[in-house]
């Protein structure tokens, strides 16, 4: 073999050591390289080549041990493998590639130039790919279902809240105005009479401000200049459903909380008013105008609050103590309960079922009563028809020319037609 340089040629001693390996190249080395390449294609080994250490062990176990000159304590000497790598580089037609390191260029291992694969490897890869596809499809379906459920839930909640408010026309201040009204009223928490007002279970139902009923306040409802400092507020409570001794204070706190920043010097709750009237006096005309705009046309405890100005003379005549009132009133606590969101109404399923059963029974009773009334009407109509037929028959018999009425006069019978 011609060598370009002396350093690239193998010595006679190196050729003598590598000759036994070349004799077993097709029998030992090539099958091992094929097996390793298949394992690499299936992902069982991390490297494409067989390392020098693995080649030393392979040759040590597979080659005959007639000569120990090229064997080391742990297998075939590394120089023999290095010589084999050079021969592989010089003979590319063997189908073997010498893999060298990037830094020093030393021999790292041997590998096949081709990449053989097995049918089993293809089947395994296809099965894993199909499994991953199924998992990805299921994950996408679950994610889509969750997104759809969330969207449907939020739409249902929005529709439910929208149905709780309806628009209607009401007369306010002598004018017909479009207002928003809660369809089902304000939900309250359950209240147990006789329970301690301090605990959570027996606390009276809170009264809260639910928002304005008008889209915008018209000019005639919000005067630019307040005529008086006294106000009369309607629909703040229902005297038929209020109980206890502390509810007037709750009404007063609600007004003071809603009119935060406004000077109010006197508040009087008319306990016996059928219109739920509360009288309020402000510290100045400017404060009364601000209180009017803050209260008029708002929903409070499911009722539409209306406000009008009251002459100070009439106010002082009814409440003499308010004439010299100058100290600003403040809420009895700082919890601002009337400005919080209304509590959720808790209705037990048993109560709902009982109400449904009662409604069904009432409907059945009404249907039975209607059927009985219809039967009675039919009987009366039949009786009237029978009486009409009888009277008609009698009249026909009297007026018929075939009937003779005999009058006995002077012993003679005179027929009358």
What does this molecule look like?
With 417 residues, this protein is α+β, with helices and mostly antiparallel strands. Among the domains are: 6-112; 179-339, Alpha-Beta Plaits (2-Layer Sandwich). It is built from 9 helices and 16 strands. It has a 4-stranded antiparallel sheet with strand order 10-11-9-14. Strands 1-5-4 form a 3-stranded antiparallel sheet. Strand 12 and strand 13 (303-304) form a beta hairpin. The longest helix is centred in the C-terminal third of the chain and has 51 residues, at 349-399. InterPro entries: ARM-type_fold (IPR016024), INM_ESCRT-Associated (IPR052277), Man1_RRM (IPR034394), Nucleotide-bd_a/b_plait_sf (IPR012677), RBD_domain_sf (IPR035979). The chain crosses the membrane at residues 130-154. Residues 193-212, 340-404 are annotated as: Disordered. Keywords: Membrane, Transmembrane, Transmembrane helix.
């Amino acid at each position: 073999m011609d060598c370009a340089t002396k350093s690239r040629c193998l010595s006679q001693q190196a050729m003598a050591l590598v000759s036994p390996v070349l004799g077993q190249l097709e029998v030992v080395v090539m099958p091992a390289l094929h097996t390793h390449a298949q394992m690499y294609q299936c992902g069982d080994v991390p490297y494409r080549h067989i390392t020098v250490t693995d080649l030393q062990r392979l040759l040590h176990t597979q080659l005959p041990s007639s000569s120990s000159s090229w064997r080391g304590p742990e297998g075939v000497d590394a120089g023999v493998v290095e010589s084999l790598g050079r021969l592989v580089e010089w003979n590319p037609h063997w189908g073997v590639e010498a893999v060298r390191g990037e830094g020093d260029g030393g021999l790292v291992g041997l590998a096949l130039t081709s990449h053989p694969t097995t049918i089993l490897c293809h089947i395994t890869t296809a099965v894993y790919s199909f499994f991953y596809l199924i998992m990805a499809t299921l994950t996408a379906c679950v994610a889509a279902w969750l997104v759809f459920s969330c969207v449907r839930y939020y739409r249902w909640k929005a529709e439910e809240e929208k149905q709780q408010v309806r628009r209607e026309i009401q007369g306010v201040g002598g004018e017909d105005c479009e207002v928003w009204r809660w369809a089902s009223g304000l939900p309250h928490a359950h209240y147990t009479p006789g329970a301690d007002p301090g605990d959570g279970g027996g606390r009276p139902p809170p009264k809260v401000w639910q928002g304005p009923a008008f889209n915008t306040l018209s000019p005639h409802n919000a005067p630019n200049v307040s005529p008086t400092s006294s106000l009369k507020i309607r629909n703040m409570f229902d005297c038929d459903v209020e109980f206890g001794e502390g509810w007037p204070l709750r009404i007063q706190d609600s007004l003071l909380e809603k009119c935060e920043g406004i000077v109010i010097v006197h508040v009087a709750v008319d306990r016996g008013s059928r219109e739920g009237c509360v009288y309020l006096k402000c510290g100045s005309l400017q404060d009364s105008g601000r209180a009017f705009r803050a209260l008029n046309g708002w929903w409070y405890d499911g009722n539409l609050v209306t406000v009008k100005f009251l002459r100070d003379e009439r106010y002082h005549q009814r409440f003499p103590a308010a004439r010299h009132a100058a100290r600003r009133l403040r809420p009895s606590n700082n919890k601002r309960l009337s400005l919080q969101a209304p509590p959720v109404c808790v209705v037990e399923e048993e109560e709902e079922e009982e109400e449904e059963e009662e409604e069904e029974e009432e409907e059945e009773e009404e249907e039975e009563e209607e059927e009985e009334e219809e039967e009675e009407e039919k009987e009366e109509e039949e009786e009237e028809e029978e009486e009409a037929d009888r009277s008609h028959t009698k009249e026909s018999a009297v007026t018929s020319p075939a009937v003779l009425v005999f009058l006995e006069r002077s012993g003679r019978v005179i027929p009358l037609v």
